[in-house]
Amino acid sequence: MAQTNGKEPIIEIKDVVKSFPLGNSEVTILKGISFAVKPGEFLSIVGPSGNGKSTLLNMVTGIDRPSSGEIMVTGKPVHKMSEDQLAGWRGQNLGIIFQFFQMLPALSLLQNVILPMDLAGKYSSRERRERAMHLLEIVGLADQANKLPSMVSGGQQQRAAIARALANDPPIIIADEPTGNLDSRNSQDIFELFNQVVGQGKTMLMVTHDKELAKRVPRVVEILDGRITRDEYVGRPNWAGY
Ligand code: ADP
Ligand code: MG
């Protein structure tokens, strides 16, 4: 179970149940999930497809709400916040990375990275541009900055998406199958970037199917049939075989 590093949790999931309507009845996808994440942890959530991993991440980001239970993130009750409150809070506190990159196709990589800063109004416009270039340098894309997403590879798009997730310097990075659409070489690069991000003190919550990556993440939480079946700090989970 959870080790402590002496800090208060930055993410607390308490007795979360999530059901969806199914015909005249309903199906319960998450049946009472509880765990806490301390600042600076790198946690991977694993489990077979359809077990509610994305649903759980969507409740941490406030995109979806639990049927019951509580989700506290950066001390805020995300399950109770209004859409307006969520939008402002999310922009400052979360960087979100998706399997299919979700870069805006009409904007260059640079403009994609600047956009969250424009929305949050966090830096001056000159700083936004400099900061975006710096982030693209960190992810190895300085020479691709003015290209459209369609002009670069999937691995490069995902690296740009990481730069975008870091744009507002959020304390938490959330990634849902970030290497699900990449080959092993590119997955490796993405994982190295995540390690750097965690090395800077950020908290990383990642859903992954990639067994090789999950083995190297310091903490693994496994969800099976709606419940947590494993929560270990070993970095080498004993895989159930999916
Ligand atoms: P995972 O990410 O582990 O593959 P998901 O969280 O995407 O799983 O989905 C878990 C289950 O919940 C799936 O069976 C999916 O069909 C169902 N589900 C997810 N979102 C909805 C929704 N909005 N309405 C109905 N069912 C949903
Ligand atoms: Mg999913």
When the domains are counted, the total is: 1
CATH superfamily: P-loop containing nucleotide triphosphate hydrolases
Q: What order do the SSEs take from the amino end to the carboxyl end, as H and E?
A: EEEHEEHEHHHEHEHEE
Query: Biggest sheet, in brief?
Result: 6 strands, mixed
- Low-pLDDT parts are 236-242
Helix vs. strand class: alpha/beta
For the largest sheet, list the strands in their spatial order.
6-7-8-3-9-10
Mean pLDDT: 92
Note the total helix count: 7
| Approximate strand percentage | 25-35%
| The top level CATH class name | Alpha Beta
State the shape.
globular
**CATH hierarchy: architecture:** 3-Layer(aba) Sandwich
Could you characterize what this model shows?
With 242 residues, the chain is an alpha/beta fold. It has a single domain, classed as P-loop containing nucleotide triphosphate hydrolases (Rossmann fold), CATH 3.40.50. 32% of the residues lie in helices and 26% in strands. The chain is built from seven helices and ten strands. The strands form two sheets. A six-stranded mixed sheet has the order 6-7-8-3-9-10, with helices on both faces. α4 crosses α5 (154-165) and α5 packs parallel to α6. The relative contact order is 0.19. Mean pLDDT is 92; it is low at 236-242. Residues 53-54, 176 line the site of magnesium ion (MG).
